[in-house]
Design brief:
Helix content is about 35%, strand content about 10%. It has helices at about 10-15, 70-75, 85-110, 150-170; strands at about 25-30, 35-40, 50-55. It has a three-stranded antiparallel sheet with strand order 1-2-3. A hairpin with a 5-residue loop joins strand 1 (about 25-30) and strand 2.
């Protein structure tokens, strides 16, 4: 507990309670900026190790009690010495500076364009370099007569038609094997009626 929140009588009382007198089994170790006090006491079950507890202000509700990380370390025996008032105040200033730096970083990040935003409409960019001869972009006209590739394609079509006509002439007058319907060899077989024969008696 900081000195500006304590009266002179209460400061004297806490100073007297922090004295480790031989007949005492419990004494005050320190306090935080929120008014919580921290104590050490002897336990018969753990004689070689002092137990540590924290006591909150009775006017504060249990859900509103908050302990600093430094006091958490002391309660769990992670650190041997309790934190001082100056150390706790410097930690509060450090947290405030971190929050300010985080706020400035968020503002810089929000100012940058996001890749998740919809892209803005922009005109189609032109060619990077223009040709020296402007006639390079003039549309070319095709000749009226069939030349080059067209003649080659027309010749291939004529060859396909002549091949089809030759195949038709070859199979004219012959029976098409695929159109002839062939049945199964045993398709017309029917079982005969069974007649019991006479038995020879001995």
């Amino acid at each position: 507990m900081s000195s500006h929140t304590l009266g002179p009588i209460r400061r004297l009382y806490f100073r007297w309670r922090s004295l480790k007198l031989p007949w005492r089994r419990r004494w005050l170790v320190g306090s935080d900026l929120s008014g919580n006090t921290f104590w050490e006491f002897k336990d018969s079950l753990t004689a070689g190790r002092l137990r540590r507890i924290a006591e909150a202000d009775p006017k504060v509700h249990y859900s509103d009690i908050k302990l600093s990380p430094q006091w958490h370390q002391w309660l769990r025996h992670t650190r041997a010495d309790p934190p001082s008032i100056e150390e706790q105040q410097s930690d509060i200033q450090r947290q405030v500076q971190l929050k300010q730096l985080a706020r400035l970083a968020d503002e810089r990040w929000a100012a940058k364009p996001s890749y998740l935003d919809a892209p803005k409409e922009r005109s189609q960019p032109g060619p990077a370099t223009l040709p020296r001869d402007p006639g390079g972009y003039v549309g070319q006209t095709e000749p009226n007569e069939k030349e080059g590739v067209r003649n080659l394609v027309a010749g291939i079509d004529d060859m396909e038609e002549s091949a089809k006509e030759a195949a038709q002439d070859q199979y004219e007058g012959k029976e098409n094997p695929w159109k002839t319907k062939k049945g199964n060899p045993g398709e017309g077989w029917q079982p005969a009626a069974w007649t019991p024969g006479s038995t020879n008696r001995r």
